[in-house]
Design goal:
The chain is α/β, with parallel strands linked by helices and 235 residues long. It has one domain (12-231): 3-Layer(aba) Sandwich (Rossmann fold), CATH 3.40.50. 34% of the residues lie in helices and 25% in strands. The longest helix is centred in the last third of the chain and has 16 residues, at 185-200. The structure holds adenosine-5'-triphosphate and magnesium ion. The site of magnesium ion has 4 residues, from α1.
Length: 235
């Protein structure tokens, strides 16, 4: 497992200070206000909060899919606001794995092709791809579904493909937005097991969840309330 961010003396993997996000809609919507957050290498952080509290907005900023309106976001000690678009894209592909709120698995592509797309983005040599896809499918228990089309998968299988795609590039940080939101208890348990294996291997995990089991599994849980981050698990 590449875990370059966990080397001793390294800065926190993620550091946000006074981060604010206002969507330029009419009227403007301020989704995050003065968010301070520090996450260390190998930490398992859960973020909880009611619908509309800014969870996805925060994860999208952390995942370099969106930018904050004001404040500062450092990823592995680097100020992300001064990076070129190319550098951001490179950092996102190399270091971050993102599991979306809806799985974003392409229905007309096979499981292997869905995962292979990520390897194309990270410029993994073609000859290495099949082996990496086989390895990651074994990790999520889907080796037998390698050639199935995305649209024919069950919800639980689709979510595991989404996780496989996020982790195939061996990211230092896995960001997951409600990964068990649409899953039954068995599939949720399977996802938690995958996350646990990753955490034991040193991957930093930030997960948005309504799932109490995931919130309790995390080292730390933070609540977003109206765009502000507050300490503690929900009561
Ligand atoms: N692209 C956008 N443009 C304008 N407003 C947005 C946009 N995305 C989110 N919002 C608004 O920002 C606020 C926070 O939204 P966000 O999606 O971050 O909430 P959330 O906590 O993830 O909610 P949920 O639990 O329902 O997924 C909401 O008021 C939402 O309507
Ligand atoms: Mg959301």
């Amino acid at each position: 497992m590449s875990n370059v961010l966990a080397a001793p003396g390294q800065p926190p993997v993620l550091h946000l200070s006074e981060v604010t996000k206002t969507y330029p809609t009419r009227p403007p919507v301020t989704a995050l206000t003065g968010v301070d957050l520090t996450v260390h290498a190998g930490e398992r952080l859960a973020i909880v909060g009611r619908s509309g509290s800014g969870k996805s907005t925060l994860l999208n900023i952390v995942g370099l899919l969106d930018e904050c309106t004001s404040g500062r976001y450092e990823l592995a000690g680097q100020d992300t606001s001064t990076m070129s678009a190319t550098a951001r894209t490179h950092l996102r592909a190399q270091r971050l794995g993102f599991v979306f709120q809806d799985s974003h698995v392409l229905g007309h592509r096979t499981v292997a092709e869905n995962i292979g797309l990520k390897l194309a983005i990270t410029r993994t040599p073609r000859r290495a791809r099949a082996g990496q896809i086989a390895e990651v499918l074994a990790r999520v228990g889907l080796s037998h579904r390698r050639d199935a089309l995305g649209r024919l998968l069950s919800g639980g299988e689709r979510q595991r493909v989404a996780i496989a795609r996020a982790i195939v590039s061996d990211p230092d940080i896995l960001l997951a937005d409600e990964p068990t939101g649409n899953l039954d208890a068995d599939n949720s348990a399977a996802v938690l097991e995958i996350f646990d294996a990753l955490a034991r291997g040193g991957t930093t995990i930030v997960v948005i969840t309504h799932d109490l089991r995931i919130a309790q599994w995390a080292d730390r849980a933070l609540t977003l309330d109206g765009g502000r981050l507050v300490e503690g698990r929900p009561s």
